[in-house]
Write a structure and sequence with these properties.
- With 398 residues, this protein is of the alpha/beta class.
- The protein has two domains: 137 residues, Aspartate Aminotransferase, domain 1 (Alpha-Beta Complex); 235 residues, Type I PLP-dependent aspartate aminotransferase-like (Major domain) (Aspartate Aminotransferase, domain 2, 3-Layer(aba) Sandwich).
- The chain is 40% helix and 15% strand.
- The radius of gyration is 21 Å and the shape is globular.
């Protein structure tokens, strides 16, 4: 007998669970895209987007995904033949580096292992060696969605400032914004990118570039930027269509408005605290299960773990077996072990991930953990029973 009938639970690290308020806001006829309520709503969104990013800088909205945002911000700031520094600690750091190379940008890669956060001292050494200041930007992923590591972005700014290096500091917050604490202005980030489908709780399709005056000045020094990627008019449009370089993504915008209202009502610091508490419950359960058997968290140090996504190793082929059982028998979809292959396991079937970002609460996380513990037992995977009880006890103390 399968118990998967009913509302499914997509517990992957994006697209995240969409609130009913977001879905309901999108369920409406097409609006007038030239004047009236829609332009007024979008202009009113801008301060709320800046609030989530904790910045007084500019924001440009694109109809794209996170990969598009990698290209968008590079197109505005780094010309072909110029150089960027990419300290990579997971698949998405390498992805941003690959995007830059495809645009004709020279990439200096600092290769970290998949269990470690970005090391500021390795970044320091690379910047110190750049005597001619050829490096135009440092591209850092705040939370890598594959490894679930969280890096210290503020520490990278401290290195740049200490050396007096003029490179822009860019942060990929696609997995972390509105989940993990992020303070763009306080941390000295020049450019930050994110997308709609994770902490912003809206369907995939919108991307956002936040940038400060230093980044805007670097844009003005560019000799050529394609009309579509150019953030200048998007951030300060004279006419409404310039927000999107064409037709507005109308129904995504209605959903985003509802999501931003939810974040404002809860308060960004309360959003961060909720994600931290729920992540702690997950870690407690997984660490308990792992007291017996092969299950381990990819990131050993709690201080380096994301509050939005958790990557785990169960060993091939048990990660894939558990994912299939949870989906087919219980209606819960876990994340693939993307970018986490091992020798002898090229497809990463020994890994899986939990997405716990955006519209999640205590009963959803305890339910997720209950399904996983049931699956471990049903599949005869060795583990220490009682992880759900350990997580519940943890939540009782926060």
């Amino acid at each position: 007998m399968r118990l998967s009938n009913g509302r499914p639970y997509l517990a992957i690290p994006g697209p995240s669970v969409m609130p009913d308020a977001v879905l309901q806001a999108m369920h409406r006829p097409a609006p007038n895209i030239y004047e009236g309520a829609l332009p007024e709503m979008v202009h009113g969104m801008v301060p709320d987007l800046k609030y989530v990013a904790q910045t007084s800088g500019d924001v440009a909205i694109y109809i794209t995904n996170g990969h598009g945002m990698w290209e968008a911000v590079l197109a505005n700031t780094v010309a072909p033949g110029q150089k960027v520094l990419v300290p990579a600690s997971g698949r998405f750091g390498y992805g941003w580096a690959d995007c830059a190379q495809a645009m004709g940008i020279e990439v200096q890669l600092i290769d970290h292992d998949r269990h470690s956060a970005i090391d500021p001292e390795r970044v320091r050494a690379a910047l110190e060696a750049d005597k001619a200041h050829e490096i135009k930007a440092v591209l850092a992923v705040h939370v890598d969605t594959s490894t679930s590591v969280r890096s210290d972005v503020a520490a990278l700014r401290a290195v740049l400032d200490d050396l007096g290096h003029p490179a822009l500091l860019m942060a990929d917050c696609i997995a972390s914004l509105a989940c993990d604490e992020f303070r763009m202005d306080d941390w000295g980030v020049d450019v930050m990118i994110t997308a709609s489908q994770k902490g912003l709780m809206t369907p995939p399709g919108l991307g956002f570039a936040f940038f400060n005056a230093r980044a805007a000045e670097q844009r003005r020094g560019m000799t050529q930027v394609s009309r579509y990627w150019d953030w200048t008019n998007r951030a300060n449009p004279a006419q409404f269509y310039q927000f999107f370089n064409g037709t507005a993504p109308t129904h995504h915008l209605y959903g985003l408005r509802a999501a931003l209202d939810m974040i404002r009502d809860e308060g960004i610091e309360a959003v961060w605290a909720r994600h931290a508490a729920l992540a702690g419950a997950i870690w407690t359960a997984v660490e308990h299960w792992g007291e017996q058997g092969p299950l381990t968290l990819n990131i050993r140090d709690r201080a380096l773990r994301s509050h939005a996504v958790t990557s785990m190793r169960l060993g091939a082929p048990h990660g894939e077996r558990l994912r299939q059982w949870c989906a087919e028998e219980m209606g819960v979809t876990l994340g693939l072990g993307i970018g986490m292959s091992d020798p002898g396991d090229p497809n990463g079937t020994g890994f899986f991930r939990f997405g716990h970002m955006g519209h999640v609460n205590g009963h959803m996380i305890l339910g997720l953990l209950g399904v996983v513990e049931t699956g471990l037992a049903a599949l005869d995977v060795v583990h220490q029973p009682g992880g759900v009880s350990a997580a519940a006890a943890y939540l009782a103390t926060v």
